[in-house]
Amino acid sequence: MEEIIAKLAAYIAAQILKQPKRVIRPDEALISSGLVDSFSLMDLGLFVEDNFGVRIEDTELNAETFDTLEQLAKLIQGRQ
């Protein structure tokens, strides 16, 4: 799970936030804090599908499913 979290954090920091050196904690709120907006959420969903080979439904692109790296990593692990 740590490897998944590290990949997700690196992608979000570099591609979404444009701050490659930014450290994102595994329990840090991404969506509810406004760090990741709804447009970026779609990109994150596509990144997950392409890099981890799992399907993410459009209805899952929300703060309940994607709000922390830990939540997202658990979802990915459960589908692999």
SSE-based structural type: mainly alpha
Give helix % range: 55-70%
Order of helices and strands: HHHH
Detail the poorly predicted runs. Answer: none
DSSP helix count? 4
Q: Please state the average pLDDT score.
A: 94
Largest sheet: none
What would you say this structure looks like, in words?
The protein is mainly alpha-helical and 80 residues long. The chain has one domain (2-79): Orthogonal Bundle (Non-ribosomal Peptide Synthetase Peptidyl Carrier Protein, Chain A), CATH 1.10.1200. It is 56% helix and 0% strand. The protein has four helices and no strands. The chain has helices at 2-16, 38-52, 63-66, 69-79. Helix 1 (2-16) packs across helix 2. It is globular and about 30 Å long. The termini are close together. The model has no long low-confidence stretch (mean pLDDT 94).
Task: Describe what is shown at a glance.
With 80 residues, the protein is mostly helical. The chain contains 4 helices and no strands. The longest helix is centred in the first third of the chain and has 15 residues, at 2-16.
Furnish the topology, listing elements before pairings.
Elements: H1 2-16, H2 38-52, H3 63-66, H4 69-79
Kindly list the characteristics that best describe this protein.
Non-ribosomal Peptide Synthetase Peptidyl Carrier Protein, Chain A, 0% strand, globular
